[in-house]
Write a structure and sequence with these properties.
Layout: H1 2-45, H2 52-64, H3 86-99, H4 103-111, H5 136-142, H6 147-159, H7 161-171, H8 175-186, E1 195-196, H9 197-206, H10 212-229, E2 237-238, H11 251-257, H12 272-285, E3 296-300, E4 312-317, H13 319-326, E5 329-330, E6 340-346, E7 351-356, H14 358-364, H15 370-388
Antiparallel strand pairs: 1-2, 3-5, 3-7, 4-6, 6-7
Helix pairs in contact: 6-8, 6-15, 7-12, 8-15, 9-10, 10-11, 14-15
Amino acid sequence: MRKNKIYSLTLSLLLFSACSTKEIKKDIIKENNETNKSKKSYIYLGISDINYTNVKKDVEEIEDIKPPPIKTVSYDELQGEFQGNYELLEFIDMMVNVHNFKREYLNRIFSQAQDYNLIPQTRSCTSNIIFGKIGAWDRYRSCFIYDRNIERGVEFWNEHEDALNRAEAKYGVPAKYIIGILGIETAYGTNFGKYRAIDVLTTRSMLGDRRASFYRDELEKFLLITRDIGLDPTEVMGSTSGALGYGQFMPSSYIRFAVDFNSDGKTDLWDAEDAIGSIANYFAKNGWNPSIPKVAVRAKYRGNRFKRLKTGYKTKYSLYKLKKKYHIYPREKFHPYGAVSLIKLPRGTYDELWLGSPNFRVITTYNHSTYYGMTAYELGELVEAKRLGNNY
């Protein structure tokens, strides 16, 4: 009986030991799995041996680090290259009092303006041309009349045909001469100018230019224009004189002649439709006569070089007198309805002589130059001929 009790007790102890060992093994396996799992995630990051306490501490320290505050520039006073310029300070006062500009806004604009005289400048194509010399016309003409520019003109005309037709119908100015102007001024919008208008106009008006008063007026109108159409004055590019947009209007001309031709509520000469209507309106307001059939015609004269009479866009001669007294004849039918300009274009081996109608003189109001007027005329004719598949 005693043996049986001892046997039962021993058996119970063995069973309890086995169960306990099994539970311990389970706990060990579970702990190892958790450790391995954690290790695997950090091994993937390349940091298998890591002190978790330190990591937590480092993360907390990083989160406590705050970025430095962003410094905001105050424009309570004029800064930059024109700081202290009393003429500009007086101008800012005027713009605030007369046109209700915010002083801080103007201080910001003019603090970013640069002295245009110190900006590296590139010479234009026409800068090296000596007017009146042999071959001068050929050199000037080549700056604007070349195959790619003619192709651009055709593309522009096709894209904006409706606006050009409307402008011709409303103002009586043929589309081809609007096209001629756009080709000279910005190559159909491919070059609005290489200089910031704010730099050019501020420099010319505030640093002793002989026409400072003129440019101060242009600067005033430039700021009004950019405010009205929502442009940042520091981002607007223009010419070396501050001319703007597709048609390169000076700000004063912009105010006088620009029109909202697309009826979107803004007069924006960086919009092609507004530019088309504005150029046509400019010509109409400067005396364009739709009844005159031809702007200019080639003339015949005796000899290869012409020196008998004064020439140029300002000249005015009776066509009858030119025929009878000087034996100068138009090479085709020509009814100018007024005095004609006698136009000489010096070429390599001879002088071309042309007769310009009063409408030719209207074109030269855009730019006071015989060569300019003839280039606008000829480029327009060439683009039209190319578009229609004809020879000019």
